[in-house]
């Protein structure tokens, strides 16, 4: 019993001792943690560090001063508050901000002033050098040394004193072929200048080719001049008594339409005219006389069918008859070596031999349209009426009576308004242009009103119309559409030929010539501003002219030979008003007169023509 009591007491003592030991350990741990925390919070004091130890680096290398650094004072001062000392008042912050703004403005002004001063120094460096080295007195308003400054308008010397009221012929552009001037030493003519030989003459047609030019007078006689004709610059009358109405150059041949609606084939050069075994006729003495031309055989024409109009390219001709049928042939006297599909006949595609020259072929796929039934079988064939054709270098455009456009030939630059690819670079059959639909509303039809072509560029005038207006026999009384027509261009515009303000190598998607839509005039009858429409259009190899209803003229395109008549050779990529004709009475002060309208305006009987590398203005009888 006693033993049990002793063991119990011992166990009690041991438990109590263990509890006291644990409490003691816990208290020690709490004390240590509090000491460490207090040690980390309070700052260093001067009693815990030796000053000599802190200032040892200065004592060894620098003179000693009994003064501590501010940073050291802050570290050793237990009452120093970093946040309180670093804070600034609102006034001090505003002052600092103003100072920084003033510094930034001063730096900006100094930078701009330095740039302007540097540019002025660079621009006037030759004058400063001349002044510094005393090589001559040269003011800052003068030009560079040895270089005269142009003042006012530089007018050309007029050798012909007739003004624009006298009928005649104005020419300008390339003169290497003696087309634009009788002065063979003149390389080009950059302003419209009168041709002395034509003074007082009225003309009905003027064409400017690559190597020669032609004109038709009011009697229908043919006049030719240029290096390609006789090697000279003096015009000559070559064809008389044939009553010619129009004529065009193609592949060394002049194709002319007379009053009998016959197409004459006339060699371009005088030498070839003399050697040609042409038609024979009898003079008033009943003597046989050889004529220097032949006539195009109208094979495939119906009885009484005649030629209404025609157009030519570099090596092809396309004509339309009074029945609205289209025919084509190769031009020149020699067999062509290559075809581009410009004939519109698959058997004369670019992969096959071109047709024989001056032999007409009907463009059947253009003249006829095939209608299919519900079973996709041929129901019937209907004749299509062709209203107009236009030819570029190696492509053809055709407009039918429904306002639909068809193109065929070379498509390297997108001049057919079809996407350019290996398969569509040459299209040898008439293909309808459907891409014009994107330029009109969904319920509208893009009716083509007119077409033009020059070089490798094409143009067409489009007017949106309602679909119901195209239904034959429609008696609907709904109002007509008020949308204005617009002009689109496609093809090459590397020299600004399209007229949309851009220089593009190839453009198959038609683009609008918006500059032509900006010209307006006040209509006194309606009291509103009406758009001025195009009255005449002429496209050359790489430039174009239009004459508006208000007699203003616009031009655009290439100007490598001065064919735009601006006095310079800069290209103009959008329709622009050319300067007025230079009259003999003009002086430099004329252009300073604020009432002088320096823009070209033509009268009713004045017409402007764009040629291969030159341009002309001629007069027709009133």
Automatic annotation (TrEMBL):
One of the GO biological process terms: mitochondrial respiratory chain complex III assembly
Region (Disordered): 63-90
Transmembrane spans: 104-125
Keywords: Membrane, Transmembrane, Transmembrane helix
GO cellular component, one term: mitochondrial inner membrane
Biased composition (Basic and acidic residues): 63-77
RCC repeat extents: 403-464
Pfam families: RCC1, RCC1_2
PANTHER family according to UniProt: PROTEIN FMP25, MITOCHONDRIAL (PTHR47563)
Name the UniProt record assigns to this protein: RCC1/BLIP-II protein
Organism from which the protein derives: Cyberlindnera jadinii (strain ATCC 18201 / CBS 1600 / BCRC 20928 / JCM 3617 / NBRC 0987 / NRRL Y-1542) (Torula yeast)
